[in-house]
C-alpha cells in the first residue's frame, strides 16, 4: 500500500498499538528547557522512577534567560531557580546540559538542528509547542506537556493517537520580498488557528523544494499556529548537506547507513491524504497580522477585513480589534509602531539576520523605534559577527543582544510595555504575549527591518 | 495514583463564551516560573481577571459570584497556542474538573486528560444551548456522565454524547495515568530502542 512520509516515520516508531487507545510511541530525541521540565523531574522522583536513556535527552536554557549580561548572575530569583533546577536535574541524571554561557546555548529549536540533534526520520519532542520546527528535516517533531516530559524521561515513550494527514502544496515561485514567514502566515490566515487541528501536515511543492533549511524550519515552526501538531518536509540534498558534519549527527559508516534509510523518506506518488490543499505562490505577498491570533493576518497592502469577511464569531473578532485599537477597513501600512523584535525559534537564524541586514544596511533606525535583535543561539551570534552583519547593524543604530527566547513570550525582562505596538518576527500575537497589555504585529524579518528604519508599518518591497 | 477518579460530575458551570481562548490567556508566561505544581489557580486567566494593580476586574466571569461550579464552558478552539501544561494545572487548581467546548486544541486536550480534567467536546448547537441556559439561570446544572459518555442539561433533559477513547476513559475512571502504563513496558521499550538506527 502506498504510504506517506509521515506514515513511514510514525509507523516505524510504534512500540505497541493499544486497541481503542493511543500508540505507545518511541522518541529518539528529547529536548528539555528550564520552564516545562522541573515538575517532570519532581514527578520522576515522587514515583521513584529513573531516566531510562539519559543520552537521548538534551537540555538547553532559553525561555527565561536574560539577553544582556549573561555572564552575571540572573537577577530574577524565580528564573534563577528554574535555571538551577535544569542544571541540577541534568547533572543528577547525566543529561547533556547547555546552560547560560555555554557555547552551544540558545533557543532549543535553533540549537537542536545546529548541533545535529535533529535528524531526518527521527522522532523529536520537547515541552514546547514550536518543536514542530524540526519537521523541516523530515522528522516527526511536536510539542508535549510536562506529564509527557516525565513519560519520556521515564520510558522514552509517550502515548499518542496517530494524527490525520494533510498535505499543503504551494506551487510556483515566491515574489520579491516574500519570505518563508509570509508563506506560513498566509497559510494560517487561510486555515485559521484551528484549521489543521488533529492533523499532521506535509508541506510539498516547488516553493518548499526551493526553500532553504532555515526557511523550512520557519514554516514547520508555525504549523502549530494553525492547530496542527506538526509539519514535515521530505528530506532532500539540502537537508543532508545541512546535517552532514554536525557534531551529533552520524559519522562514517553510521552516516552511510543513515543515508540509505533517509533516502527512503518520501511520500509515495499515489499516497492519499485525509485532506489536501493547494495554493499558488503568486497569491502570497509580505504578510502582517492585525489581530490577536496568528490566523488574523493579511497581505501587507490590504486593509483590515470586516467581521463578515472572516470565519468565527463577530464578538470575538471585535474584541480582538478593540484590544489592538484597530477598526475594520483600516490600512495596515503606515500604522504606528514602537518596538521591533527580530529573533525567536521562528526567525532567529542566520538567514533572518541576513534579511534584516539587507534592508537596514546604509539606513538608520527610526527614532521612535526600540529594537531588540536577539540571535537564536551563540552559533548564530558568532555568524552574525563573522559575516560582518554586526557592523551593518551598529552603523544603522542597532544593538545585538545575547541569545534566548526573549520578547517572544516575555518571560525575562524583554517585555513590550502596556499599550505599545511591536512588529515581531516571532510566532504569537496573543493578548499580552510580549508583556501585559502589549500589542503584537507578526511579520517577516524584512517587514520588521523596513518598519525599524521608517518607524511605521512598511512594505519591504518599497525598500528592496 | 495520579489524580482523582472521574465518574459522574453534576455541577453548575462558569461560562466563557469567547473563541480561540489561548493558553497565554489561561496562564500568562510570566507565571510559569515555579518549579513545583502549586498555586497556578491563583493566576488562571490572570490578565482578564485582574487589573495591572492586581485589583479584580469586576466584569470578568471568575470575579462574578453569580457564577460558580466545577465545569468551565468555553467557546470554540479552547486552549490553542502554547503546550504549557500549566494551563491545565491552573484550570484544575482553580477547582474545575471538566471543560466543555465545541472544539479543543490538541495539546491542551491531551494535557487535560493527563492530569484528570475531562475535556468534553459538544456540537456548536449544544454549546449554544448551554450558554443560553446559564444566561437564563446561572445555577443551572450540567451532568457529565463519563461511563455513559453523555452530557446533560438537567433543566431541559437535553443530552449529547461525547467522544473519548476507551483507554483514556478507563484511565479517568480509575485515576490511572500513562506513566502507570509505560513503566510496566520498560523491557519491551528497551528491546525496541536497541533496534533504532540512532
From TrEMBL, chain A:
Its cofactor is [4Fe-4S] cluster. InterPro entries: 3-IsopropMal_deHydase_lsu, Acnase/IPM_dHydase_lsu_aba_1/3, Acoase/IPM_deHydtase_lsu_aba, Aconitase_4Fe-4S_BS, Aconitase_4Fe-4S_dom, IPM_dehydratase_rel_enz, IPMI_cat. Keywords: 4Fe-4S, Amino-acid biosynthesis, Branched-chain amino acid biosynthesis, Iron, Iron-sulfur, Leucine biosynthesis, Lyase, Metal-binding. It catalyses: (2R,3S)-3-isopropylmalate = (2S)-2-isopropylmalate. Its EC number is 4.2.1.33. It holds the Pfam family Aconitase. The keyword Lyase applies. Catalyzes the isomerization between 2-isopropylmalate and 3-isopropylmalate, via the formation of 2-isopropylmaleate. This is 3-isopropylmalate dehydratase.
TrEMBL record, chain B:
CDD domains: IPMI_Swivel. Pathway: Amino-acid biosynthesis; L-leucine biosynthesis; L-leucine from 3-methyl-2-oxobutanoate: step 2/4. It comes from the Bacteria. Its EC number is 4.2.1.33. It holds the Pfam family Aconitase_C. One of its GO terms (molecular function) is 3-isopropylmalate dehydratase activity. PANTHER family: 3-ISOPROPYLMALATE DEHYDRATASE SMALL SUBUNIT, 3-ISOPROPYLMALATE DEHYDRATASE SMALL SUBUNIT 2-RELATED-RELATED. Belongs to the LeuD family. LeuD type 1 subfamily. This is 3-isopropylmalate dehydratase small subunit. It comes from Lutibacter oricola. The lineage of its organism: Bacteria, Pseudomonadati, Bacteroidota, Flavobacteriia, Flavobacteriales.
